[in-house]
Amino acid sequence: MIKKSKKNIGFTLIEVMLTVSLSIVIFFIVYDLYLLSQKSFNTSNTKMELLQNGRIIIDRITREIRQSQDIVTPLPESKGVEGFDPPTEFQFQDGHGVPDIQYLRYYLSGTDLYRQRITYYFSEEPGTFVYWDAVDQFLEPPESIVTDNKIIAEYISNIAFYGEDFTNIEVWLTKNNINEHIYSSVWGRNSRE
């Protein structure tokens, strides 16, 4: 009688171990690539958010300074003037055709940039708005009232205003240990000076 040989169907233990090991290595490589791409995406997304926030700040402030008729805040000629650091708040007259004399003030509180609308008046005539540097018959300065106070931007670590002919604006933004620096210069074309 002829003995039939049985063909073994299947994998040897070495083949199985090799396949499992190779699969685990490939899985970890793919997982590391996924984590790296997520980290890169999050970093890019944060940078994009900071740049967008900074662009909005610069665009809005430069547009309003360009229309301004008077700058209230004294500014140093440059940021390197000894003993006269650039202010982190800035006030100027609103020049957007408002019927009343109003002033805008940008200031930093924590990491938020606020925009205030301020009017000045004398207590004898509270309905009549005057310039910030006006004086009454007793040489007293006017009183002020804040009519609007809104957050304009967030993630601001610092802001600086300086310049003599041109107003220079520098904004430093920070989020998740990512820093961005944006700056611009603007000329107030409607200035009273």
H/I helix tally:
1
What's the quaternary structure here? Answer: single chain
Element order: H for helix, E for strand: HEEEEEEEE
> Whole-number radius of gyration?
32 Å
- Helical content, roughly? 25-40%
Overall number of strands: 8
Largest β-sheet summary: 5 strands, antiparallel
Tally of domains: 1
Low-confidence stretches: none
Briefly note the structural class of the backbone.
alpha+beta
Shape: rod-shaped
Distance between the termini: 120 Å
**Mean pLDDT rating:** 90
Strand content: 25-35%
3D structure, described in words:
The protein has one helix at residues 13-67; strands at 89-93, 103-109, 112-122, 125-130, 143-153, 156-162, 167-175, 178-186. By secondary structure, the chain is an alpha+beta fold. The protein has one domain. The longest helix has 55 residues, at 13-67. It starts with 12 loop residues before the first helix and ends in a 7-residue tail after the last strand. The mean pLDDT is 90.
List the SSEs and their pairings.
Blueprint: H1 13-67, E1 89-93, E2 103-109, E3 112-122, E4 125-130, E5 143-153, E6 156-162, E7 167-175, E8 178-186
Antiparallel strand pairs: 1-2, 2-3, 3-4, 3-5, 6-7, 7-8
